[in-house]
Automatic annotation (TrEMBL):
<feature type="transmembrane region" description="Helical">
    <location>
        <begin position="96"/>
        <end position="119"/>
    </location>
</feature>
<feature type="transmembrane region" description="Helical">
    <location>
        <begin position="193"/>
        <end position="212"/>
    </location>
</feature>
<feature type="transmembrane region" description="Helical">
    <location>
        <begin position="71"/>
        <end position="89"/>
    </location>
</feature>
<feature type="transmembrane region" description="Helical">
    <location>
        <begin position="348"/>
        <end position="368"/>
    </location>
</feature>
<protein>
    <recommendedName>
        <fullName>DUF2157 domain-containing protein</fullName>
    </recommendedName>
</protein>
<dbReference type="Pfam" id="PF09925">
    <property type="entry name" value="DUF2157"/>
</dbReference>
<keyword id="KW-0472">Membrane</keyword>
<feature type="transmembrane region" description="Helical">
    <location>
        <begin position="312"/>
        <end position="336"/>
    </location>
</feature>
<dbReference type="InterPro" id="IPR018677">
    <property type="entry name" value="DUF2157"/>
</dbReference>
<feature type="transmembrane region" description="Helical">
    <location>
        <begin position="167"/>
        <end position="187"/>
    </location>
</feature>
<keyword id="KW-0812">Transmembrane</keyword>
<feature type="transmembrane region" description="Helical">
    <location>
        <begin position="35"/>
        <end position="59"/>
    </location>
</feature>
<keyword id="KW-1133">Transmembrane helix</keyword>
<feature type="transmembrane region" description="Helical">
    <location>
        <begin position="275"/>
        <end position="292"/>
    </location>
</feature>
<feature type="transmembrane region" description="Helical">
    <location>
        <begin position="217"/>
        <end position="233"/>
    </location>
</feature>
<feature type="transmembrane region" description="Helical">
    <location>
        <begin position="374"/>
        <end position="391"/>
    </location>
</feature>
<feature type="transmembrane region" description="Helical">
    <location>
        <begin position="131"/>
        <end position="155"/>
    </location>
</feature>
Length: 424
């Protein structure tokens, strides 16, 4: 909550009797003005500039410095960052304190890399980088900070990228540390931003695994939908949605690409894994997802799995494009139906966008070649106007039903109760 919002809204709260004037003043005192916050950031910004200046000087003369001095600078920077973080935390300045702790984690990783270069350690030994991820995960448990939870996820993705691109290996330990370590931390303290970043980080590592192992691209969706299934088991619905968002986006883009470019069989060598192995693994993840949805009462979101229908096993051509478009339409319709039942405006907007995308893909894919351009755009405009009219009509019906449901209990309460009947 910002001070500007309080200054704007709190007088009306006092007028309506929600709070007193004294309480309003206490609330305003709790949230300092933007100017005070900006002044409070000046020492931090000045310290960062001084630190960057010292860092640039050291970097420019790094190779000329004695080995002991280099190690002393690395160790001193590490101790200074952690000690400064603890100092500000004890004084109640959590932002600066957590920022310095995060800086210490970054310095720790840089120290590992620079020390390896200094002593020319073996390049294929990733134990030092693995220790960096371990320390990051441990810090996320020691401190209640969103940034310190995000850092090990990003560090894990960066280290995994280095391992696959520079060393040609995939570290399952790093993926397990991020999935289990950071994942359990999020599970105990759900957060929507952390959920989104965690899902993207795990999907990135899954993509690196597919690329390094030269597997079929579709194997990517087994770990991706495992992330989705984990969201089905979490009680916090907003955090679960944030975790499931990236896998669903990836699945939708894949289905959209299949609808656009699936008319040829050029994709067969890239997308078709062994049937029994792939469908068995996908069925196991699907069963896990269904069990979670049933446990949390979210079976209405089961049509999300329509995007994972393995249509790429079908022969290419127009039938495959039409079948994929039908899947996209069915998925968009399920999102719209779910939004109308729950009354969520964001889901309604999302369903509308998905429906329009499917319509445009079908339109350009199936009609552009044989319709006159004027008739082409005319039909498209009529379709979009019809969709807009239908959605507005549905919203009006829901609003009328809501007003009626609110009015009916009041009228029933206003009528006097009937006298009890005499006993026979």
């Amino acid at each position: 909550m910002s001070r500007k919002f309080l200054e704007t809204e709190s007088p009306a709260w006092v007028t309506e009797g929600l709070i007193t004037e004294a309480q309003r003043e206490r609330l305003l005192a709790r949230y300092p003005s933007d100017a005070v916050q900006a002044v409070g950031l000046l020492p931090l910004l000045g310290s960062i500039l001084v630190g960057l200046s010292a860092l640039s000087v050291v970097a420019a003369n790094w190779q000329r410095l004695p080995t002991q001095l280099r190690l002393g600078l690395l160790l001193g920077s590490l101790v200074a960052a952690y000690a400064g973080g603890e100092y500000f935390l004890r004084r109640g300045n959590r932002r600066v304190g957590h920022g310095l702790i995060g800086l210490g984690l970054v310095v720790f990783g840089a120290s590992i890399i620079l020390t390896s270069q200094l002593y020319q350690l073996v390049g294929y030994d990733i134990s030092g980088l693995l220790a960096w991820v371990v320390v990051g995960v441990l810090l996320s448990y020691l401190y209640t900070s969103q940034s310190l939870v995000l850092l090990p996820i990003l560090i894990g993705a960066a280290v995994q990228t280095y391992c696959t691109q520079a060393l040609g290996i995939f570290s399952y330990t790093i993926m397990a540390l991020v999935a289990l370590g950071s994942g359990y931390r999020w599970w105990r303290r759900p957060d929507t931003l952390v959920a989104s970043v965690l899902a993207v980080g795990l999907l990135w590592q899954a993509a690196l695994w597919v690329a390094l192992s030269h597997s079929k691209i579709t194997w990517f969706f087994i770990p991706a939908m495992l992330v989705y299934a984990a969201g089905d088991w979490h009680r916090d619905r907003p955090a679960a949605r944030a975790l499931q968002g990236p896998p669903l986006v990836a699945a939708y883009l894949f289905a959209l690409g299949l609808a656009l470019f699936g008319e040829t069989d050029q994709y067969a060598g890239l997308l078709r894994p062994p049937v029994l192995a792939y469908l068995g693994a996908l069925a196991a993840v699907f069963a896990l997802s269904v069990a979670g949805k049933r446990q949390q009462g979210r079976l209405a979101s089961l049509p999300d799995w329509l995007l994972l229908l393995p249509g790429f096993y079908l022969p290419g051509g127009l039938p495959l494009a039409i079948a994929t478009l039908m899947v996209l339409y069915a998925h968009a319709g399920s999102v719209l139906a779910r939004a109308h039942r729950s009354g969520e405006a964001e889901q309604l907007t999302l369903g509308t966008v998905l429906f329009v995308i499917a319509t445009m893909v079908a339109y350009f894919k199936l009609t552009w070649a044989f319709l006159d351009k004027s008739l082409f755009f005319l039909i498209g405009g009529v379709l979009l106007l019809s969709l807009s009219w239908y959605l507005r009509r549905r919203n009006a019906q829901r609003l009328a039903a809501g007003v009626a449901s609110v009015a009916s209990p009041g009228s029933a309460a206003a009528s006097p109760p009937s006298p009890p009947k005499p006993l026979a």
